[in-house]
Design a protein that fits this description.
The chain is about 70% helix and about 5% strand. With about 130 residues, the protein is mostly helical. Helix 1 packs antiparallel against helix 3, helix 3 packs across helix 4 and helix 4 packs antiparallel against helix 7.
């Protein structure tokens, strides 16, 4: 169920960005304007949405956990950045998040689900050169 839940969240939210229908677009654009200058925002939001869709799809595919979890880690870093870089949009007061801030903080549940999936992976087997 965790895999399916992660797929739904990432694919759904990603496809909304690709289609230009995401309510998170203003927050993403505000962060984009403070951090990225090498591409246009319309290109970025589509690529970011496709990245989210890819994460969702990879969570459905067994055997790709070691690929998707680092991608999720990168995504989570970018997702938590507004809490630090856009405090007026993510905090009403000390420890009182706005709706956008709550939307970001709920990603701790996504991280927990991913850790749960990762905990069921078998360890890499080391090859001996002898």
């Amino acid at each position: 169920m965790a895999r399916f839940g992660l797929f739904v969240v990432f694919f759904w939210f990603g496809i909304l960005k690709v289609l230009g229908l995401s309510p998170a677009t203003p927050l993403v654009q505000a962060l984009f304007e403070q951090t990225i200058s090498f591409m246009s925002f319309p290109t970025f939001i589509i690529l970011f949405g496709l990245f989210e869709c890819l994460i969702g799809i990879l969570f459905l595919m067994r055997g790709y956990e070691r690929v998707v979890i680092p991608l999720l880690f990168v995504h989570m870093i970018t997702t938590f950045m507004p809490l630090l870089l856009l405090p007026s949009e993510t905090w009403q007061a000390f420890m009182v998040p706005t709706l956008e801030g709550q939307y970001i903080i709920k990603n701790l549940v996504i991280i927990a689900a991913a850790i749960g999936i990762a905990s069921h992976l078998h360890p890499w087997r080391h090859r001996s050169n002898t």
